[in-house]
Every structure is written in structure tokens, then in C-alpha cells.
Amino acid sequence: MASVLEDPSLERNFKGHKDAVTCADFNPANKQLATGSADRNLMIWSLNPKSKALRFVGHNDVITSVQFSPCGDLVVTASKDKTVRLWKPRFNGESTVFKAHMAPVRCVSFSHNGQKLVTASDDKSLKVWSVHRQRFLYSLNQHTNWVRCAKFSPDGRLITSCGDDNTVRLWDTTSQQCINTFTDCGGSVTFVDFNASGTCIASTGSNNTLKIWDIRTNKLLQHYQVHSAGINCFSFHPSGNYLISASSDSTVKILDLLEGRLIYTLHGHKGPVQTVTFSRQGDIFASGGSDSQVLLWKTNFDKLNYKEVLKEHHRRVNPEPPPHLSDIFPRSPHLHTAPSSSIQISPTVADTQSADPHIVEVGPVLFPYMQDHHGNTVPRGGAHSGNGQALARSRAQPEEDGQTYSRTYALEEHSGLPNGFSTTLGHIVQQLDVLTQTVAVLEQRLSLTEDKLRECLDNQASIVVQAQRAEEQAVERESQSSSA
């Protein structure tokens, strides 16, 4: 078992989004982080403090999902504008648009070989696409309400999905059939994913719980109730030993899956936390929330050699994989209550590395054609009238040449304030954040104390009631014996 090193620590605070951060993913190949937002923009952040951040413009509504390809050379985003975009994370901002669904697209995910995409939509369907051919392949249509999330298994043979019909489904990608349905979800299911070995899935939803299922035995392995509001997202650690969850209760929680307990509660966001994700190595993780902030955390609490762990997991996805999460106790369903010794962390460092990165804005991207869900190439409407010459130029090119055109703008922000004054204001805001988090911790401890006092009073009341009943029964027995 891994040894404990130290508590998680807040490393950086990325600022650039103008609305809630809804999704995030790390580049497997480079030190980059992609985030999508309700401001309709895709941001690519460099983990190098001195590098610039890129803002990609193109979607016409909230970005709901983002993911890097396994090689890191592509980024895919889904949006409420009913489209999916494939981006090249470079300065020229090239992208390809899929008219994916007839309703908002809630989730998009690469297969683990990068050859396919699966999309989930409010039109109650899943769709599978070829990445390189940029063609629609097939639909999966047994959900009876909005589909919130869909993910490929590590070996690509299965897809799991969930939605507002209160179910989690497993699909066989070869037969294109639903092979299993989990209905004991307790309400709408907002997020679902496979663990690293592909033997288990976890699901979360509106009933504030997180459940882990063994898909080989169809048994519920673990059931956590650690959040006080709906869980919006979670991420498995590459080792499979930990899981982080993001909730509308403004917290990020870290679960130890081997011991079946809550080990950390992180207070860094003001308002609901919408997304959280581990890096592919597990040494860092990121969270994003309705406060428009992206927080980068250093894991610290585990020091395994993750390259060896990933090799072991690669062996596990071969035929007849040995048990992995099925070794976690308890094996039967249970309600998890956080122990009183769980650690509460209130980060006080906003950014220990650098000032906010300079942002280069990329877009709008001008593409004359897009793919519909039947695989047809159709003209794309809604191009900006101010870019008519560039659009005409792109239409004059043959479709086969693969050339695209975009504009790059430098993002200039003029605050009108002296630098020293702005720095002082920043320090004041940081100190206010510290005070706010301290008050939040004190309020939580006060609530715990009140709960314990209430429990003691209830116990005392029950003891008094039992004593009174026992006394009444004794009096009744004496009266019966005297009359006899």
C-alpha cells in the first residue's frame, strides 16, 4: 500500500474565464490543462508559469465537456449549441465542427486509442463517431430522458452512460446493444466513468451520493454519502486507490477507496464546484467552479511509482483481468459517514508560482463546412459578417486540401489603475478569501458541535422515556400481584 506523504496543496490559481468553469482535462503528452466554460470559450493553460494561455473562440453556447486525445494532439469540446468541435491546441486555432445532435450535447469522450468519440445529448441518444474520417458511425437509443454523460472503457469494448431517466447503462460497442442497466441510483445521474482497470464504474447524481459498481458481478461495492449537495463530477486516481469529487456544496473531497473512507475536504471555491480531474500521472489535479476560477492542486498524499501502476493496469485490461476494486471492503452496500478525524483543508495561497498568465485569444474560427449526424458535408451558417473576405477565401479552396483559416488576436486588458495599487488590492482580496474560508471552517465545526449536542439530548430523552416505561410496568406488575 502507498505511504502517506503530506496533505494536498494549492499550487496555482488560473484566472481568465468570465463565467463558470464547467469542465477540465490534462494533456497526457504535455504540461497543459484545457478548460471549458459557460462563457463559451475553451482555454488551454500551460503549467509552465511563464508561458501564455490560449483562448479559443467558436462555440455559440455553454461548453459542457472537454477532453484531450490520448496523444495530446487534439482537444474535443461539446456544447449546448448542439455541436462538437475538434481543436488543434495551437496558436492558429484550427477546428472541425460536427453538427452532432438535435439538442444540447452534454458530454464528449475519446476512446482510449483515440480513434472514436462518443457523445451524449438531451435528445436522449448517444452517438459514436470516427475521429480521423470525421464521420458518424451509429447511435445508441435506449435512454428515456436526457443523457448526461458517456465514457469508453479502457479497452474500448464498452461504453457506460447515465442520465435523467435515473439509470446507468452499459453498452457493447461490437453488438451496439445495451447489455446491462443499473437502476438503483436514487435519482438523476449526472456523471459516470470507469476505473483505470475497467472492472468497475462509479456514478454520481442529484441525491448527493457516489456509488461504485463491479460490472462483472453487478454488485454495489461502495456507497458514499459525504457531500451535502449534488455531485457534479469525479475523477479516479491513476492508481485506482483514490477518487476526487466536486460538488455544489462548494467542496472537493478525496476518498481513499482501499480503506473506504473520506480523507480530505478541500475548500477553495466560492460556490458550486463543477469539475475536477487528475492528471494522467496523478501527481496533480485541477478543479473549476462557478466562481470562474481554475485551481491547480499538488496531490502529495501518495508516492507510488505511477508508471509501474499504469503498466499493471495495462495488463489488467487484457482478457481475464484479475480482481482490482473487488478487493475493496466492505463488499456489501453501506452508507458512509465521514469520521471525525477527517482533515479539513482551507488553502490560503492563491498563486505561489506566478502572476496571471498572458492570454492569447484565438478565433473566431472560419470553417465553411461541417459534418451533420448523417455524415454529410453541409455549409456552416452563422459566420461573422465582418470576416466575409476570409470566409470567401476559405470557400474558394478545394475541400480536399484540408486548409483552414483563423484570426489571432492579442488580448489587451486596460484596468486604468497603477500596478502598485492593483497589487495591493490583490493582497487585500487574498486576505479576505482567507477570512472567508476560516469563517466557513468555524461554521462547519459549530454545526458538528450542535449535531453532537442534539444527539446527546435525543439519547437522554430516550433514556428518560425508557425509565418511565419501566417504572410504569413495575407499578402495573405490583398492582396485579396485590389484586391476585
Give an overview in words.
By secondary structure, the chain is an alpha+beta fold. It folds into two domains: 337 residues, Methylamine Dehydrogenase, Chain H (7 Propeller); 65 residues. 17% of the residues lie in helices and 38% in strands. The protein is built from three helices and 33 strands. A six-stranded mixed β-sheet has the order 2-3-4-5-30-33. Strand 6 and strand 7 form a beta hairpin. The longest helix is centred in the last third of the chain and has 65 residues. The radius of gyration is 26 Å and the shape is globular. About 17% of the residues have low confidence.
Low-confidence stretches: 316-354, 365-370, 379-416
Number of strands: 33
Please tell me what the overall shape is. Answer: globular
Distance between the termini: 70 Å
Pfam families: WD40 (PF00400)
Protein name: POC1 centriolar protein homolog B
Biased composition (Polar residues): 338-353
Coiled coil: 432-459
